[in-house]
Each structure stands twice: as C-alpha cells, then as structure tokens.
Amino acid sequence: MLIVIVLLWIGSLGLLVLGAMFSTGILIGVGIAGMILFPLLCYRLKIVNPNEAMILTLFGNYYGTILKEGFYYVNPFTTSFNPTEPGKNGIRKTVSLKSTTLNNGIQKVNDVLGNPVIIGAVVIWKVTNPTKAVFNIENYSEFLSIQTDSTIRNIAMMYPYDLMDDEAADSEKTLRGSAQEIAESMREELASRVEAAGLEIEEVRITHLSYAEEIAAAMLQRQQATAIIAARQKIVEGAVSMVKMAIDKLGEDDIVLLDEERKAAMVSNLLVVLCSGKDAQPVVNSGSIYQ
C-alpha cells in the first residue's frame, strides 16, 4: 500500500505538471487534490513491534486485533483502541504483551491468629488476550493492582506467621516457613481472578514479611526465649551424657571406687561446671565429704 500511495502521489504530481504545461484547469485541480489527499493516506500505515498488539475499532464496533509484528495498512476509518495504557506522548496505540513486574508495596494484614503482619509481594504478569484486557476491564493495570492487594490479604489471613508449638511446625504451613508454597497459592488465586481480563500471572514472590511494629518487640523476646530454651536443652543433654561417660569410665578402668554419695557429689559438680553459663571457679577440698 505504501508503494501504491507513492505511485499515486507521483501521478498527481505528473497531472499537475501536465495541467500547468497545457493550461488545463481540471488536470491542475486533480493533481493538487491528489498531492494533498494521498499523503494523508500514509497516516493509516501502522507499525506493530514484537510483543505488541493493535486493537482496531470501526465506528464504535470491534474490528480486529493485529497480534503479529510488522508493517500494516489499516482501514482509514478504523481507530486504534487502548485507553488504559499511557505512553510517552499520551495514549499508546498498542497493547504490550511483554512480561511486566508489579510491585504493590507492603500492607498490614492479620494472620490466622490475629497478629498484625506486614507483608509485601511482587507479581510478574503479562497480557495474553489483549481484546479481553481492553474491552472487558476499564483499566487492567489498576484492576490487577487491586486484585493483588485483595489476594495477598485473603491468603495471609489463612496462615499463622509462625507456630508457637514446635511439634506442629513440620505439619502446618506458616507465612515464614512456607513462603514458597503460600506464594504459589497466591498465584493460583490471583490468576483465577484476572482470567476475565485476559491476563496471565507468571509468578508471585513474597518480598517482605515481618511482624507489625506494635508486637515486633514482644515476638522478638519470644523468639529469643525459645532459642535460649533450645540451647539449654542441648547443653543439659550433652552434660548428662558426659557425666555418665565419666562415671562409667572411672568404674570400668578401676581408677577410683565411688560410693553412691560420692557419685552424687561428682554428678552435681560436673553438671554445675558443664551447664553453667560462666566459667566455673575450682575449689580444692582438702578434707572429706564425711567430715
């Protein structure tokens, strides 16, 4: 069509020259009209870049969608329709089909236990059906953002941030311990919500997760207490094992014979030394425990 327009423009120029040579007003008028009209037809030449689509309407009705990249000439009476995606110079005439990242920031939600939690997620999405995205939804970018907020809130309210009981830690999902599985649940629910908009959710990732400020200090103390208890438990288990090994070794090699009272004293001293949080201060006993 570009070649046709160029040839017609050259023909109009030729008619204008012939009209001027032979003083023919009709030829001059046709030549001038052609030179003005045919360049205007170039306005309907459209370029569709890779991973873009162009949606056309004709007198308010859906006319068609160009999904393949290339150089096209479209009906002069059609218009490109994409009122929701701004470009550098106002409204873009095409719909991008590229993968896009949506970072919706962070929001405060309550987990299943009622604890306030700060959570944020990033969504990787793209338009797979540009016709649905433009005609079914007023603004598909804003629609996706709102649905993302709602999905994150709904999924986060179904799980606890962390479990108080260590025995149930392996059987129940938590926001902190099962972030990947919960993000996949968010992706599935969000994909079902935006399907009518012609959008595909490729991935959802939790980018921020923490307790809210009002309970962060208390939860930190609980975590510290849990860590201290676990460490003490390990220390006691190791100390008892070492004391038992020492007594058994002394008895097997006949190094020293200890009665029950001396064994009890030895056990007490060893446990104090092994379980103490500070360095033990040795005391030399020059007498007897029986005096």
UniProtKB/TrEMBL annotation:
<feature type="transmembrane region" description="Helical">
    <location>
        <begin position="6"/>
        <end position="38"/>
    </location>
</feature>
<protein>
    <submittedName>
        <fullName>SPFH domain-containing protein</fullName>
    </submittedName>
</protein>
<dbReference type="Pfam" id="PF01145">
    <property type="entry name" value="Band_7"/>
</dbReference>
<dbReference type="InterPro" id="IPR001107">
    <property type="entry name" value="Band_7"/>
</dbReference>
<keyword id="KW-1133">Transmembrane helix</keyword>
<keyword id="KW-0812">Transmembrane</keyword>
<dbReference type="InterPro" id="IPR036013">
    <property type="entry name" value="Band_7/SPFH_dom_sf"/>
</dbReference>
<feature type="domain" description="Band 7">
    <location>
        <begin position="43"/>
        <end position="223"/>
    </location>
</feature>
<keyword id="KW-0472">Membrane</keyword>
